[in-house]
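Case study 2.
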Amino acid sequence: MASPFNKITGIRILKLSPPQILVAGFAAVILIGTLLLMLPVSSVSGLPMRFTDALFTATSATCVTGLVVVDTGTYFSTFGQTVILLLIQIGGLGFMTMATLFALLLRRKISLRDRLILQEAMNQSSIEGIVRLIRKVLLYSLVIEAGAASVLTLRWAFDMPFGRALYYGVFHAVSMFNNAGFDLFGEYRSLTGYVSDPVVNLVVLFLIVSGGIGFIVMSDLVDYRKKRRLLLHTKVVLSMTAALLLTGTAVIFIFEFTNPRTLGALDLGGKLWAAFFQSATPRTAGANTVDIAGLRQATQFFIIILMFIGASPGSTGGGIKTTTFTLMVGAVISMLRGREDIVLFRYRLAQERVFKALTIALLALLLIVTVSMVLSTTEQRPFLMILFETTSAFATVGLSMGLTPELTEIGKVLLCLTMFAGRLGLLTLAFALGPKQGKPLYKYPEGKMIIG
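Prediction:
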């Protein structure tokens, strides 16, 4: 039986592997978005957008990054902003999730091949319960975005006409839940006008964290009343997320306490809100309430580390993921203690997981270093700024020190490729370009070499 995804799109993809289908699908969404953003109706001026700028914007939206070469709030018309919003939603949930939604609405059967693609897209170990998980993903996204949009609309109705407040509420709820970071306030201000506003801070932080912990964790937390136990994955994600948020808040609060360009001009409450927000947003959210370029270099470098770690598997965020970082830390601790096994919450982890975590981290580091080196020759800017922008692109964060709007054409293309690789995942991209080989039927003799 033909796949419902094929029937909906009319694309014959029978000979492609699941990773190749994901790569082709995201590329197709980006291309369609690029063409739509190039239409004269997409800009306020009525002039067509340049191809590289449209490509960069479509890639940033689909990969839920948030880096922009033009100001979203002032350059694009309502039509253009709506296109960006749709790209964010499709990119955040995944185009296969959206295709599954249409298949379910049309009451079409989800084939085995579709389930395999969804398994790859959601980074699951099996196809068991994958359609049920997709249903939950769609439900949780709708409920969270609608609830947050309602609260933001009521808050912004005090500052602007209700119709505009509703539009802003919906746009920013979708953008922040999908960890995209696009905003409509203009002049690249993001949320700096609400640095001490408790309502905006709480709602946006809730959206960032809920979108970043992943739908598997959400589902596990919702089912906790029935099961009375949490998955190991959930425990690791929640504990590492809390540790990174608290550590980040403390470091940013200390480093920026006296900085007049960021926290120095705020009262104690404002300092705490700003430090906590800037600790959460590098988890691939992209919004900011203080000037990122005004941060001290130590803080900027620390944020690079937070961006590199990123969000959690099965979420709308990027980075190497919290579980990968946890595994690497666990491996170091086990080695220092002279133990062979990595134990987390009384569970022993297979060596295969450690190798996968190490592969992801090294590939990510190699990509960031390579792109940063090339950009250092094409962009005449300080290296820290280039490294910051490259890491932000790879981790699909969207925080910027101001380099992106000034990029050369080569720089834009490079960051487009970096965002694309970061959103799909380096392993998925590697398997798509070169299919994974089967396990060998023999083993070589064990060799010995000196390490360290």
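Residues 1-13 have pLDDT under 50 and may be disordered.
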